[in-house]
Design brief:
The complex is a heterodimer of chains A (272) and B (252). Chain A is α/β, with parallel strands linked by helices and 272 residues long. Chain A is built from 8 helices and 10 strands. In chain A, strand 7, helix 6 and strand 8 form a beta-alpha-beta unit. With 252 residues, chain B is mainly α. The radius of gyration of chain B is 22 Å and the shape is globular. Classes of the chains: A alpha/beta (272), B mainly alpha (252).
């Protein structure tokens, strides 16, 4: 708990530099080896999606990245500083929005709450929280309670809470898994827009291959038992993406097929 | 309009009952059950405002002081025990035993150590009121959603912040449920301690009137106790509706 309380004490990370370094991380629960030997460097400013078959330990890996869970061996470091507890420059968006927001606080207070731990002035906190909620399109719902909003809007509140903290990196654990398809597309586009606008780094875990390819600059494919890195693919899909046009390019189809095959190879045992 | 309707709906039965009492007791010649009309006359005479100053105010003060003490001890202790699971498991049998012992059973020993004055009365009220609040707080603190604690950790909230912004708000519906129970207990213990303790208070007033065969005054005291309990509960409900607004709308 002796990390700097205020954010942004270090100079902003340069795009392309390694921001989060994962070195030979493994996780065992008793005799069960969940994560094998995972190494990956997350670059500053990139959108990295971690995709893999269900039960591959994607969430476990994300929890190791965030410092919520200690790896059995290996290490995670954020700009050279070892991560043992969630660092000040990191924010996490959890899968279950209905349980990750405080039902007794208004939307605005939910977003403001983490900022109250900092030394920030009240007016400043309110300004930042309001701005974050505007960023996710919830400016008109500040005084509502989260449970008065739809699922997609609740997840927006959780995203705003992460953004208000002005983190360098946001980890998202299957953030759109429990909303309907249309809301899901909207939230994907919102996340892309916010990432470009604020220049943050995002690591997102998903089991949805389309989502992973659509969002990512790079896709990290996991598989095997214990789980290891199967592939790390640059998507080269460019900055501007669109649910219809991007997804109908041959490039997208190719990437999608490649990830699909890699995951299927992991889940269907080879016939001998 | 709707509020007025609700109030009328709550009031019609009490009004009917009081009316019945008034009519049926009108010709009463029994010494012990005088006509309500006479009790009401006496009530105004006794309680406005000498009685209110002399006997009601000290009673009310005791209840509030004892209740607030119980609230502080119950919520603080309950939060601590809710967080320290192992300690609470070790203490649980003792707590259950103490809770099951009727509070007033300790009266003889309390009078030995604290006398028959204000300290003893407030202590007895506070003691009896603590248990429901304490045990409910423990449960409320325990039932915090684990994801919220991960959120707290990921935003590096301190323990104090977690208690203030997560554990206590999460426990607040249970704390209020315990508090309402405690308030009813407080009124009972207040009357009992006043009846055996030093002069002053509505409980003493009722007993004293009975001893002096002033049955009319005795009845006015009993009615005053009923009104006191009713108004305390009403005030508590208003506070609860305000503080637990989120909980009530959410579960409506």
């Amino acid at each position: 708990m002796n990390q700097p309380a205020a954010n942004q004490e270090l100079p902003a990370p340069q795009p392309g530099q390694t921001l989060l370094s994962v070195r030979n991380v493994s996780k065992k629960y008793g005799p069960n080896e969940i994560l094998g030997d995972i190494s990956v460097d997350v670059r500053a400013g990139e959108f990295l999606c971690i995709v893999g078959p269900s039960g591959a330990g994607k969430t476990t890996l994300l929890q190791c990245l965030s410092g919520l869970l200690a790896p059995t061996s290996g290490s995670v470091s954020l700009r050279g500083v070892e991560v043992s507890e969630p660092p000040a420059e990191m924010a996490i968006v959890f899968q279950d929005y209905s349980r990750s927001l405080m039902p007794w606080l208004s939307v605005l207070d939910n977003v403001a709450l983490p900022l109250r731990s900092t030394k920030m002035a009240k007016a400043e906190i309110k300004k930042k929280s309001t701005a974050a909620l505007e960023e996710v399109g919830l400016a008109g719902h500040l005084d509502k309670y989260p449970w008065q909003l739809s699922g997609g809007m609740q997840q927006r509140v959780a995203i705003a809470r992460a953004l208000a903290f002005e983190p360098a990196i946001v980890l998202m654990d299957e953030p759109f898994a429990s909303v309907d398809a249309q809301t899901r597309s909207d939230l994907e586009d919102l996340t892309l827009k916010v990432k470009q606008h604020l220049g943050i780094t995002i690591v997102l875990v998903t089991h949805d291959i389309d989502e992973a390819v659509y969002l990512s600059d790079r896709v990290l494919v996991l598989g095997g038992r214990p789980t290891e890195v199967v592939d790390l693919i640059e998507t080269h899909l460019g900055e501007d993406r669109d649910q219809i046009t991007t997804k109908s390019t041959p490039q997208f189809a190719e990437l999608r097929a490649r990830v699909y095959q890699e995951i299927r190879r992991q889940t269907v045992p080879a016939q001998s | 309009m709707k509020a007025l309707k609700n109030i009328l709906w709550e009031l019609w039965l009490p009004i009917v009952l009081v009316g019945l009492w008034l009519v049926l007791s009108a010709g009463s010649k029994t010494f012990y059950f005088p006509p309500l009309a006479r009790i009401m006359d006496k009530f105004v005479h006794v309680w406005f405002f000498d009685g209110i100053l002399k006997d009601l105010t000290p009673s009310l003060g005791r209840i509030l002081l004892g209740f607030i003490l119980a609230l502080v001890v119950g919520v603080a202790g309950g939060t601590l025990l809710g967080l320290l699971r192992r300690t609470e498991e070790a203490l649980r049998p003792v707590l259950e035993f103490l809770r099951s012992t009727p509070g007033v059973a300790l009266l003889p020993i309390a009078t030995l150590f604290l006398g028959v004055g204000q300290e003893m009365k407030v202590f007895m009220i506070a003691l009896a009121c603590t248990w429901p609040i304490l045990l409910n707080t423990i449960d409320g603190v325990r039932s915090v959603e684990p994801v919220l604690l991960q959120v707290a950790r990921s935003y590096r909230m301190t323990m104090w912040e977690r208690i203030r912004f997560i554990y206590i708000p999460n426990a607040s519906p249970q704390i209020f449920a315990g508090g309402r129970l405690s308030l009813a207990i407080a009124a009972v213990v207040m009357v009992v301690t006043e009846m055996i303790g030093s002069p002053g208070g509505v409980g003493y007033f009722v007993l004293n009137a009975q001893r002096n065969f002033d049955i009319l005054s005795m009845w006015t005291g009993i009615i005053m106790l009923g009104l006191l309990g009713y108004l305390l509960n009403l005030a508590f409900r208003l506070a609860e509706n305000r503080i637990l607004r989120w909980h009530h709308i959410k579960n409506a």
